[in-house]
Give the backbone structure.
Amino acid sequence: MKDMHREQNVWNARYAKVLYGSHARKVDQWLEPWLHLAPAGNRPRALDIGCGCGHNAKLLSDGGFEVTAIDVSDVALELCRREAPKALVQRVDLRKGLAFPADSFELIVADLSLHYFPWNTTVALVGDVANSLTDDGLFAGRFNSTSDTNYGANTGEPVDGEPNLFIVGGIEKRFFTRECFRGLFGRSWIVLALEEKTAERFGPRKTLWELIATHHGGNLAEPDGSTVRV
């Protein structure tokens, strides 16, 4: 409970700067090129994990998706309501997992929102994502890279027993290598793209991983019987 309240306070303070006009966030267009890969439907459903200011939620709503947007920050949710008024917004503590029924969404987006946790929690969250997606559903995510030294990689206070997890700005923050995704996306996933990129919407250049994957209900195997891996 203390962890949740501490994180809420940190994120509420950060997003208050956006809400009250002292800090603006640029919008980058990383997500739009992948949306055509989501299963088509009359009104496909999308989940925006860690919706923040609501830019992705707006893009999805404008693109015809029925959007559920979640965040731990009440201030972020207010920003999202203003940016994407058609979206259903909910406050969710990701440390408690995702409680959506199976096959709830054709698309799930996690834009720099799944890297704030111990490894076991991260693995469980990706499992929840898989359960919440429909068969052939699309996941689009971005994650901190271990090369992201402008934003705390190898510069924060290390968390004991958790490689690449640091205390940065008062909260836990994980940084990923390519190998990390082997433990997160295998078996029922097909990874369509995994690339280390840079983004400048945050101020100093940020280095991140962009991962696009589709989920399938059964285990997928290569012709030699091995499981499809990153």
User: Anything to note?
Assistant: Helices lie at 2-19, 55-62, 74-83, 119-132. Residues 2-215 form a domain with the Rossmann fold fold (CATH 3.40.50.150). Residues 14 and 23 are 9 Å apart (CA to CA). DSSP finds four helices and ten strands in the chain.
